[in-house]
Amino acid sequence: MTACEYRPGLEGIPATQSSISYVDGHQGILEYRGIRIDELAQKSTFLETAYLLIWGGLPSKQELNDFQHEIRYHRRLKYRIRDMMKCFPESGHPMDALQSCAAALGLFYSKRALDDPTYIQDAVVRLLAKIPTMVAAFKLMRKGNDPVQPRDDLDYAANFLYMLNEREPDMLAARIFDICLTLHAEHTINASTFSAMVTASTLTDPYAVVASAVGTLAGPLHGGANEEVIAMLEEIGSVENVRPYVEDCVQRKARIMGFGHRVYKVKDPRAQILQGLAEQLFAKFGRDAYYDIALELEEVINEKLGHKGVYPNVDFYSGLVYRKLGIPTDLFTPIFAIARVAGWLAHWKEQIGENRIFRPTQIYQGPHEQPYIPVSERP
Ligand code: ACO
């Protein structure tokens, strides 16, 4: 093996071979299992897309019905998980709550059988079914309220919005939320997926895999950026303030949240679709006050940073959609996690199918042959 050039952040270095998703960052193309994201957003549902990602092909009608049925009947949380959540500090971030709950789920299924297809199927169903319930439960329980029980007559997206807002959602809102989940379901080897794969490669259980990915997604340079976008729009406050805000950021070399991507050097195709969804919601429920600021921001950043390939990423318009759906800002990243569980599980399954533990190398830059100085002799 020849020595490789060191690339910070492993930029451009293939970490795996995968047939789950594909991104062309210059043409703005994203495909799941070869199908364009625009087509899936328009014609599929989140659960069908999750099936496609995890099992490698679109389900037959019967397979889809069975999958939906299984998930519907595994949505409830164990009372011990709910009891555990009661002890969480109400000011804690929901991503920390979710990470803890995902890991705790592993306590109930500690027998690992990674070569048993039933074990894999059950873990997929449980995680896809229960993660939304955990997010909705924490939202209510942190205020001292009881969680709302899932409703078997509602589909995946509608049930989540029902558990969250304690009322049946509008049909358009539920469909748009489902599309948001589809758009966020998978995105090649991003930081959280890489984290999931590294954890999976040790052959630990899938609950630990998802917990480690949730922890990675939480950071502001990854999934956490969607919350920061809303904070930034609040801070800017008016369309007139956009240009000076951007000029100041450019001058200080500060990052503008919701812009830029390691892979996309054009507008993220998901941002394009999300913007359209936001507009559909505004047409039905009224325009968001921040939308004009967002439009101006996109224009000014295009002018100032477009030459560096800095354009809106998936997090830029998702926050405006979620705001219109009545979702609190600190749940934006957990919602990203609800969707991305599908991608993480697809990579978990792919990883354990042909596993080799991740063990990269490093370039040591420290000293050698140092003397040990007893504490009494140290300055
Ligand atoms: N605001 C201002 N300038 C930016 C931004 C940004 N958001 N993103 C990149 N740039 C600039 C950099 O300053 C750099 O300029 P330089 O060459 O003059 O130094 C140039 O564009 C290239 O940027 P890199 O740092 O090489 O880009 P990298 O691939 O390392 O970063 C990242 C990608 C982390 C997403 C970055 O764009 C960023 O911090 N964006 C803001 C946070 C964000 O929105 N994250 C969500 C990403 S999507 C997701 O994870 C789901």
From TrEMBL:
Active site per UniProt: H261, D315
Keywords, comma-separated and alphabetical: Transferase, Tricarboxylic acid cycle
Catalytic activity as recorded in UniProt: oxaloacetate + acetyl-CoA + H2O = citrate + CoA + H(+)
Pfam families: Citrate_synt
PROSITE patterns named among the record's database cross-references: CITRATE_SYNTHASE (PS00480)
UniProt key word Transcription regulation: no
Pathway(s) of this molecule: Carbohydrate metabolism; tricarboxylic acid cycle
GO terms, biological process: carbohydrate metabolic process; tricarboxylic acid cycle
GO MF entries: citrate synthase activity
SUPFAM superfamilies (UniProt xref): Citrate synthase
Statement: the UniProt record of this protein carries the keyword Transferase: yes
Family the UniProt entry places it in: Belongs to the citrate synthase family.
NCBIfam families reported for this sequence: cit_synth_II, PRK14036.1
PANTHER family named among the record's database cross-references: CITRATE SYNTHASE (PTHR11739), CITRATE SYNTHASE, PEROXISOMAL (PTHR11739:SF4)
Protein's name according to its UniProt entry: Citrate synthase
Organism: Vasconcelosia minhoensis LEGE 07310
